[in-house]
Amino acid sequence: MVTRTRLWKITLLLLLGLFVFLYLFVNTVAEFYFAVTNPAAGLHFHYHKDVNRVVIHGVVEEGPADLAGLQRGDQIVAVNGHSINSQWDFIRALLSLELGKLAEIEALRDNLHVKIAFVSERVVNFKLVFLSLLPGMMFGYMLCLIGVFVLLKRVDDKEAHLFYLMLIFWALAMRETFPQGYMLHNILPFWFRDMLLLPAWPLAVGLFLHFHLVFPVENQTFARRRRLFLLLIYAPVLLIVPHLYAYLNGLAWVTSFLRIGWGIWLSLYFTIALAVLAYSMRHAANAYIQKQTEIMFYGTAVSLGVPFVLYFCPRLLLGRSFPLAEVSSVLVVLWPLTLAYTIIKHRFMNIDFIIKRGVAYALVSGFVVAAYFLLVVGVGQLVLFLTGSRSQLV
Q: Residue 188's pLDDT band (boundaries 50, 70, 90)?
């Protein structure tokens, strides 16, 4: 009976990981496609019942939509003379734009009708690709692979299960936070987009705090009041209920208030988790554990802490980030690399990874150089060649 229960638990964990991985894959393909082919990519929009129109929620800076003249808050009235009465009408209109031909979007802006005319063309948004899509893709895929590796290595360990869930939800949460093209997000049905993806952030940060309270050594205060701590750690997930109620009833001020509250709550939990990790580093039982926690602390502080303060936290609290702060989002790729390095070099979570040091360093160095050349040079030139586009960096 115990074996059967354990088998079902591992199966469910792996299925969850497979679901997240497939979502990341489909998301990446869709976003890359629209980033290099659609002249109006880089939009985040929803249908608002209170105004009975499609409203632009966000425009990627220097993206095709931004260059066309669309702005946050624009209410779409028509595209090429065709009235827009639903979100699907707008999506179909965007997909029907023909390259090289004049396109006209009529919008309501500050109670005034404006017409935005532009010649549709393929403009590869390199800022979107290299500061958003590629870092988000690498971050998510690496976390999924590391999580599965640790889970299969320590299949009977509850700490490994917690670590696995933490990585899976971080991959999912960060994918929905990067300044990407948003096209797949706009197409997804409401129940999937908000009911399933919205809890990803509080679960990711909650699992992050939970894991560091039990590893490498369980915190004694947490052990004495486990139920109370778990309730507090995962309580932010419950905010999804009033958020959905406000969204369904068009209560924009409630949604903004909850977003700010969510941002403050998650920022506090992330800070506490780093403090717990620092405490574990200072009070480690031996030099071996101290080295592990030291690498984890500094790697996490740089790779997640800096982007969190400069980019992600302002987006949660204010709905926007500091100028040029999106560049710091590239640092998140260092977090899965920190985890991989700690596992390989310092046997993080007591995982044996037998490989000669020289071979390991050579493989890592070769991978970094090859990845940089391929992604920064190769992909850029390939996209320009295949699409006949011009670069926005020129």
A: low
